[in-house]
Structure formats: structure tokens, C-alpha cells
Amino acid sequence: MKIKFSIEYQTRWGESLSVVLSGKKHPMNWGEGGIWSVEADVTATELKDYFYVVMYDGLISRME
After folding, report:
1. Cross-strand bridge partners of residue 35
2. Does this model's pTM top 0.70?
3. CA distance 45 to 31
4. pLDDT category, 56, cuts 50, 70, 90?
């Protein structure tokens, strides 16, 4: 099934967000109002354990 993840998050210059599902990063797109979002094809079991990561220069700088 296709699920849309979105979160309001204020980043600093050079930062971006990704959502991680089953160990795979899905880069998110920035939108108006500081809303980051991405659509991903997922299974029900993948939805049990997901988290957001803040990326800086391609490296994970923080997990949320």
C-alpha cells in the first residue's frame, strides 16, 4: 500500500529529512510552511517500526 509521511520540521542550511522503513531510507521533499513529505510503498509490518532521520551532507546527524 502507498502511504504518505509528512512532518513539520524546521531545518538548518544543508539539512534534509528522510523516513526509514525496514532499514531503507526514503528521502523527503520540503514543502511550503516547513512541511517535509514522501510517499512510499510499504507493508503493514514495515509500519510498526519507522523513524525519521535528519541528514547533513549525506550523513545521518540525528534520529527522531
Report:
1. 8, 31
2. yes
3. 28
4. very high
